[in-house]
Structures are given as structure tokens and as C-alpha cells.
Amino acid sequence: YSDMFLFIGLAYYFAGGRPFFMSLQAGGSPEVSPWTVTAIIFAIAGSFMVSYTRARAEGLGMECKAGMMQRPERITLLVIGSLLGSIPIMGILLLKLVLVALAVSTNLTAGYRIMFIKNRMPRDDHAE
User: Fold this and answer.
1) Euclidean distance between CA atoms 36 and 46, whole angstroms
2) pLDDT at 57 exceeding the cut of 50
3) Is the CB of residue 81 less than 8 Å from the CB of residue 95?
4) Cα distance between residue 23 and residue 122, in whole Å
5) Among 46, 45, 42, which residue's Cα sits nearest to residue 110?
6) Pick from 114, 127, 98: which is nearest to 50 by CA?
7) At residue 67, does pLDDT exceed 50?
8) pLDDT class for 18, splitting at 50, 70, 90?
């Protein structure tokens, strides 16, 4: 849930969601970016798959910590991207780049873990 709530908040913002206390703020609307929302969806999927592949491997009695985008790395990158997002003028672009990097790297890590486990599974040489 921790990963999901962060991504949902970002997706809501980039989908054009209004701030909760809109009447307390002076103007300004969030930047609407369907491509960024798409990157966030892929980042969520990749994050879930990284965790799922590890849990599935452990369910098969194997340890799988392969790949570089485990939870601490994902959260750290997301926090850095969020902090960069507050920089005037360039911040939103930097945040978008971090989200795309997360989308790509989490899915690559999940794919790598799948292949890692597949290559370490015992082979049934007596199958017909």
C-alpha cells in the first residue's frame, strides 16, 4: 500500500485533480499530462511485479533479491523526484523524468527476476 498511495497521489495530480483545499489556495491548476499518468500506471505495475516475483519465488522455496529496484530504491527515487518537483520551472519536468525512470526500471527488474527464478528452477528431465 505504501507504494500505491504515493503513485495514486501523483496520478491524481497529473490527471488534473483539484487540490483538496482548493478554496484556500490562490489560483493555479495542476498540470494535466496523460503521458505522465501512463508512466505512473506502468511504475505501479512494475512496483507490484517486483514485490510479487519475490513473494512468488519465496513461495517456491527460493530467495530472490535480484535486480536493482527493490522497495527502498523505489521509495528513495520517488522521494527525490518529489523533492525535485518543487524546483521552480524545471521541477515538474524532473519529476516526470523520475517517473519514467521508475516505470522502465521497475519493469526491467521484474522481468529480470522472472528470468532469474526461471533459470534456477529445477528441471524435470524425465518429463514426457
Assistant:
1) 15
2) yes
3) yes
4) 61
5) 46
6) 114
7) yes
8) low
Gap between the Cα atoms of 32 and 16, Å rounded: 5
d(CA 6, CA 125): 46
Q: DSSP H helical segments within the chain, as ranges?
A: 2-14, 34-59, 71-84, 91-120
Q: Choose among 41, 36, 42, 29: nearest CA to 14.
A: 36
Q: Is the pTM of this model over 0.90?
A: no
Residues 6+ apart with CB under 8 A from 62: 117, 120, 121
The set of cell numbers assigned to 94 is 524532473
Q: Which residue from 80, 71, 56, 61 is spatially nearest to 109, judged by alpha carbons?
A: 71
CB 30 within 8 A of CB 36: no
Grid cell at residue 67? 535486480
